[in-house]
Amino acid sequence: MSDKAPAETGEEAALGPLVRKVGHLVRNKLAVLVNSTYYLRLRLGDTDEKVTRHLNLMEREVGVASAVVADLMDFVIVKEPARRPLDVNQLAGDVLSELAYPDAIKIVTALKPGLPLIEADPAQIARALEKLLVNAVEAMTAGGRLTVRTGLGDDGQMVWIAVSDTGPGIPVEDQARLFDPLFTTKPQGFGLGLPIARSFVERHGGRLEVRSSPEKGTTCTVTLPPRSR
Fold it and tell me: Is residue 208 part of a domain?
């Protein structure tokens, strides 16, 4: 598999600058809302429960809008990876340390020591892993176990990272569409998480596979080539 990003079509190449321009504009407007909400919170305090509730709502919705903008920019704007030697175990630990999840979810790790380094863009691989972890958390609405494992492929060369959840699994009829942009089964979803994750992984010559069984959970596995010697 090639380690280069797929060539853009004429339409995709034209979309990139447009999305970048609109994305930066929207981000600037959202930043104004964040600052204004912060100012109102300082001035009004928490004496009025109704005001506090609306300020919390504003902050939450601004966060959702910011995430949507980031996803659109990640999906449309192709960036060549800024590669450097990377320890996948350290990366997994770093991303997990930033993950927000409810108390009802238990995190389990099984990181194989002594794995070979990969040559990768830390931000892009971290973003891909973050998408898989968030999907796993959101799948377990009633709580469960999220497991992150690392290891070597059967050839003793390829490095893999697997994210497993104990959620309800993905319906069989939906599994063929998991990587379709804008396809989602979540009421508040936007349908770009898995396509973005796969795009980042494939830019590094790797692959992303999803296996799911109804009522038994889902496992997403990222496989990446080792660092060239």
Answer: yes
pTM score, whole prediction? 0.73
- Contact criterion met (CB below 8 Å) for 121 and 83: yes
Residue 166 CB neighbour total at 10 angstroms: 20
Kindly provide the b/e burial profile for residues 187-226, where b requires at least 16 CB atoms within 10 angstroms of the residue's own CB. eeeebbbbbbbbbbbbbbbbebebebeeeebbbbbbbbbb
Measured distance CA(126)–CA(148) in Å, rounded: 13
220 with 208: CB under 8 angstroms?
yes
Residues 126, 146 share a domain: yes
Determine the pLDDT at residue 4.
42
Q: 3-class DSSP state for residue 120? A: strand
pLDDT averaged over consecutive 10-residue blocks of the chain (229 residues)? 43 62 79 89 82 88 78 72 94 96 96 95 94 94 96 90 95 85 66 86 94 92 87
CATH of the domain at 194: 3.30.565.10
The size of the chain, in residues, is 229
